Amino acid sequence: MAKYLWVNPVAEKMYGDQFPAMKEKLEKLGYRLVGCEPQLEYVKQQYKEVVNKTEQTVLDCRCPESIVLLEKNGLTEGFHVPRIEPILVRTSRVLHERYVKEKEDILIITCPCTQLRDFTAKKLQGLKNVTCYTWKEFIEGEQMNSLGHIEESPIPLGFFDDTFEKVARLSSEEEILSEITSIGKKEKTYDIIEMLYCKDGCNNGNGI
Questions:
Q1: Rounded CA gap, 42 and 32, in Å?
Q2: What are the tens digits of pLDDT across the range 155-173?
Q3: What pTM did the predictor assign?
């Protein structure tokens, strides 16, 4: 039996120079920390294909809570919502295919917030032996502390800046609601609207 663990980049950056020591502790507990090549370009390519096909402004779906927020407020009409899986879900699929080979093997995916944890778990329901936790849940379950704070997110706004000419960048519930309401059902103003529910990025999620 192998216990594979993927540490979310937000959590890894939170520890900074202390991360090697954290990794050593986890390895002593029997975890094998795993990773894969970044899936950013794979996801970007999916958005490129969608933007090229639609006449509507595309909404970024990488942060599921942003879409939930707009749907609750009836603000998705007039936009194209592509339902492309977040990078974290794509990464989880790649890791599962690569590492979970034996019946007893398990893969643990850590997430920066409860919303992304629940969304990812639902998307991965068909895969065996995968469990999703927030980083805080996981590390406290091992009787260690999460540092709980990181100044700057490794996942800031700007993901689409080198891909599309017309990009709106929004973060926080207030900004998303205000700007999407303002943009409304106008003719296509942007290629894509990038959205992160937490102010300034995933470093402010409730799972770190």
A1: 25
A2: 889 999 999 999 999 999 9
A3: 0.92
